[in-house]
Amino acid sequence: MIFNKDTAEKTAELLLQINAIKLNPENSFTWASGWKSPIYCDNRLILSFPTIRNYIRDEFAKNIEKQFGKPEVIAGVATGAIGIGMLVAESMGLPFVYVRPEPKKHGRQNQVEGFLQKGQNVVVVEDLISTGNSSLLAVEALRAAGANIKGMAAIFTYGFDVAEENFKNAKLDLYTLSNYQNLLNLAVAKKYITEKEESTLREWSVTPSTWGQVDSN
């Protein structure tokens, strides 16, 4: 669910402007999962544009407090959300921790890095939601450390049904600054893509795990 429509449209436009989101229906990208995709999202680029990162920071800070109440800690999911999560924590005057994909193999073998007390209210900041699996693993680690997770706030989501189901099963509310629907609407309106390309992008979003696969039969 998006925080609000105006923010969703503005965020989508900014991501397209800096090529954080690349749309290429003719020559698909291959994700780490092996999925073929006509879209690639790299929100790390936001950190290189001060005006845009400040906008994202401020929208996060404002909407997190409005939706979840002011938490006691902001947690970022490594590695994509460490930078923006820390900016949000700084803006809100809150402690910051981040969550590794898995515990370190040496030293204290931490998965949650930073000072976190049991029972503290935490909002998790994420950069991108696809299936939600890696994001929810971070939530599990925080809960195992005793955190009370108020919700998750992400920059962008593809809006897959599987992600919605995963968050529902985890009993976790997810809010995002923008999403795939608002992105496509804006991309068409601003002529980033043609109507034919829009059709391809909408078709992909229905069956993303099998889209673009060649039938060998």
TrEMBL record:
It comes from the Bacteria. InterPro entries: OPRT, Or_phspho_trans_dom, PRTase-like, PRTase_dom. Its EC number is 2.4.2.10. Orotate binds at residue 130. Its cofactor is Mg(2+). Pfam families: Pribosyltran. Signal peptide: none annotated. Residues 59-156 form the Phosphoribosyltransferase domain. Pathway: Pyrimidine metabolism; UMP biosynthesis via de novo pathway; UMP from orotate: step 1/2. Keywords: Glycosyltransferase, Magnesium, Pyrimidine biosynthesis, Transferase. It is an enzyme of class 2 (transferase). Homodimer. Belongs to the purine/pyrimidine phosphoribosyltransferase family. PyrE subfamily. This is Orotate phosphoribosyltransferase. It comes from Flavobacterium magnesitis. The lineage of its organism: Bacteria, Pseudomonadati, Bacteroidota, Flavobacteriia, Flavobacteriales.
